[in-house]
């Protein structure tokens, strides 16, 4: 996607759909090498990159904003596929945080 194609006025639903398309493209592209993908992105991407893979609908605008406020500064999540079924797993790693962020288990935030 080129810079000119980015829509800065996209809705939360469109954001989820764009992130899902990107993740699925990466997974398809790397399938012959095992399908492993590492994504490094900002807080909301932990949810937007995994939610549709998990078979859940995009969050509402209000739920999305609430979630963003709960995601740790440097949260880590693992999403694994077993026989076509995607799951989020706890990494067991501590999260980095600062005064205004909570130190939450990222996997538990994604499960609701």
Overview of the molecule:
The structure is a single chain. With 112 residues, the chain is of the alpha+beta class. 32% of the residues lie in helices and 9% in strands. The protein contains four helices and two strands. It has a two-stranded antiparallel ribbon with strand order 1-2. It starts with 11 loop residues before the first helix and ends with a helix. The model has no long low-confidence stretch (mean pLDDT 79).
Beginning-to-end CA distance, first to last residue: 31 Å
Mean pLDDT metric: 79
Major sheet details: 2 strands, antiparallel
**Rg from Cα:** 14 Å
Helix and strand element order: HHHEEH
Provide a short characterization of the protein structure.
By secondary structure, the chain is an alpha+beta fold. Helices cover 32% and strands 9% of the residues.
Topology summary:
Layout: H1 12-30, H2 45-48, H3 61-68, E1 78-82, E2 85-89, H4 106-110
Notable traits:
112 residues, alpha+beta, two-stranded antiparallel sheet, 4 helices, 9% strand, globular
């Amino acid at each position: 996607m080129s810079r000119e194609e980015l829509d800065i006025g996209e809705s939360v639903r469109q954001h989820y759909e764009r992130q899902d398309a990107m993740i699925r493209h990466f997974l398809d592209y790397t399938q012959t090498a095992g399908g492993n993908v590492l994504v490094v992105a900002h807080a909301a991407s932990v949810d937007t990159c995994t939610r549709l893979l998990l078979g859940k609908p995009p969050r509402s605008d209000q739920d999305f904003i609430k979630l963003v406020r709960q995601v740790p500064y440097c949260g880590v999540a693992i999403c694994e596929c077993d026989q076509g079924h995607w799951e989020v797993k706890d990494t067991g790693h501590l999260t980095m945080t600062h005064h205004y962020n909570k130190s939450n288990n990222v996997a538990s935030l994604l499960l609701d």
